[in-house]
Amino acid sequence: MSWFGFGFNGFGQIIPRARANVGVKVLFPERLESCNCDVGQTRVTRTEKEERLPGEHCCTEIRATWSRRAVVHRQTGDVCISGFVTSPSNQNACTHVPATKGCQDALIGERYLTASFTDKIECWDIGGLGSQPVWRMELTKTDTAALPLAPGGYAFPKTPFYRALAPQICARKLALGTEHAVLLSADGTVYTWGSGSHGQLGHGSVESQPEPLAVEGLRGLPMGDVAAGGWHSVCISAGGDLYVWGWNEAGQLGLPSRCLRAQAEHGSAGEAGCAVVPTRQEAAVTQEGEGSEVFISIQAFPALLDLPEESEMKKMSCGTRHTAAVTCAGDLYTWGWGDYGQLGHGTPRSSDQPLHVEYFTKEGLCVLDVVCGSWNTFVLASERAASFE
Asked: pLDDT grade, residue 288 (50/70/90)?
């Protein structure tokens, strides 16, 4: 079982920049190296190391932001950070954060690192990880929600670090976008609040919403997971259907994008860096030669996304302007802005339709999880079981 990364590598958060021929863009999935810090080297026995494949990761989870990734070591309860930490000299190193020893979960932002323990939540300024926490909250043994959720509210990567939620909302998961939040309640209801400037709240307008409000367009449809991008939102229903809404400027909703069509017609990457793969809709219009295509810039209501081969989804994640989803069969699909290779197709192309990332299938790998940073993507995969059909 290994983690792979592709996309923006400006700070060595995927591959250390000190290695030869390593650039800012990683266009194909690359197996991540094991942590080179003390925690990464001592958390397994010598025998386990000899039996493990190069780059294989045991019991680790990844959290990502624009300039760095954090690895949560479940066996020891430690966090290591790769990418930009405190100075350019540290960009190629894996930095262990001793204060996280014994943690159960972590949340990383551009400035702050938050970790939850059995009895507390603590937050540190990444520029001073050896100093005292800038915020702390005591917990009881019954508080088990995953970050950013906290008792009675949630942890936020900016001041104030704690924000309360209405007591009648029984939160199961919370995803934070650039200017908005998407919450999944225990009964499968989706709530959103924050800025609605790009339709990312799903309430049918571009108005902002100061408090959590249920998304009416999903009422009666129990959801199983939610994710938030820069200015778009995605959720998976209990039956594996994918619903999308918000900004579609780079095709991050998987809907027809005028921006991508214009860039393709002019034969240039343009502002968003998009040399595009033609969409299914474009091909159909060209073949039929009738009617005009409807482009979507802002989708203010949730829309059911048509997926290749009617695939059922089980996991998804959002970057600033791209989206990735894992099917129940263990296949990975990506779409949206791809200028840094964050779609994993081997080219810096964007797409406004879900495209299968063929690398994992060709390598005989089953995708288990996906985590998007702002401009990159991290994937957990294992060898597929042999088929006897």
From this structure: very low
Distance CA 124, CA 215 (A): 34
> Which residue type is seen at 340?
Y
Q: How many angstroms separate the Cα of 326 from the Cα of each of 6, 242, 248?
A: 16, 11, 20
| Strand-pair partners of 61 | 72
pTM of the model: 0.88
Answer yes or no: are the C-beta atoms of 155 and 121 closer than 8 Å: yes
Q: Is 217 strand, coil or helix? A: helix
> How many other β-carbons are positioned within 10 Å of the β-carbon of residue 115?
28
Q: Mean pLDDT across the chain, nearest whole number?
A: 86
**φ, ψ for residue 50, nearest 5 deg:** -65, -30
Yes or no: say if 74 and 44 are a contact pair by the CB < 8 Å rule. no
CA 249/CA 131 separation, integer angstroms: 41
Q: Is the dihedral of CA 346, 354, 234, 204 positive or negative?
A: positive
Closest CA to 317 of 380, 238, 258, 273: 380
Spatial neighbors of 227 by CB under 8 A, at least 6 apart, are 175, 182, 233, 234, 235, 316, 317, 318, 323
Tokens of 46: 């010598």
> Phi and psi of 308, rounded to 5°?
-55, 135
In 3D space, the residue among 207, 171, 206, 164 whose CA is nearest the CA of residue 191 turns out to be 171
* Cβ-based burial of 163 (10 A; exposed 0-12, middle 13-18, buried ≥19): middle
Strand arrangement, sheet containing 376-383 = 25-31, 2-8, 376-383, 365-372
